[in-house]
Amino acid sequence: MAIKKFMYTNRKAPYGTVYALESLEVVLIGAAFDQDVSLAFIGDGVYQLTKGQTTEAIGQKNFSPVYAALGDYDVNKIYIEKESLEERGLSLDDLQHLVWEDEDEDWAEKDSIRLVSRSELADVMTEQEIILSF
Amino acid sequence: MKFSIQINEGPYQHQASDTAYQFAKAALAAGHEIFRVFFYHDGVNNATRLAVPPQDDRNVAKQWSELALENDLDMVVCIAAAQRRGIMDAAEAKRQGLDADNLMAGFRISGLGQLIEAGIESDRLIVFGA
To answer: Which of A29, A96, B25, B31 lies at 20 to 30 Å from A81 by C-alpha?
Structure first.
């Protein structure tokens, strides 16, 4: 099967609508297809990766721990749009520290998160073959 | 060209399904191939056969159903999204111990892998809604 460059763009807050959760479900299933996968977090989508989420008060499942497992699924190109963070008064310190283990370098732990500017992200998007927008 | 279509919003509330339907019709009329239509998020609600819109309005599910049956389209409803929202075919309803099913003819229920496969196998995957 051909390998294509897939990007999942995540643009919405984690709760309030189901898009973030159901996007994550596509990413996890899609990982089984061994494609070249990137994730982008843009706009309110950056809130999906914030640390310390608790959801008891809204009666919904807290699915944020799942993002930490993405590295195990070989999903390790996670682009965060810098301007989106700044516009919301956030920095990388507010987000989960996502890592993956590089099989080719004796399982060295590496950062999955790539902080990019809006224009850099536009360049990355131009390289993609399939963009699934959530 | 070989297209696949993803529909992310339900009928009537959003225009996404209508626009996708017009796109699909136009693509087929122009001689293009549609590899698959995939219904996700509230888009699974396009597949209920129990919707009864007013007679002077379009019937979104029926439109899709007729287009699929006429053109042998592969229309797939995501099973995870469908189960959350109560869209069931007869086999799934039985498996879940439910007393009813509601999947319109021309649709089938399957997994998210069908969406990824559609992306791989098609020249273009067009997303409507969200």
So the answer is: A29
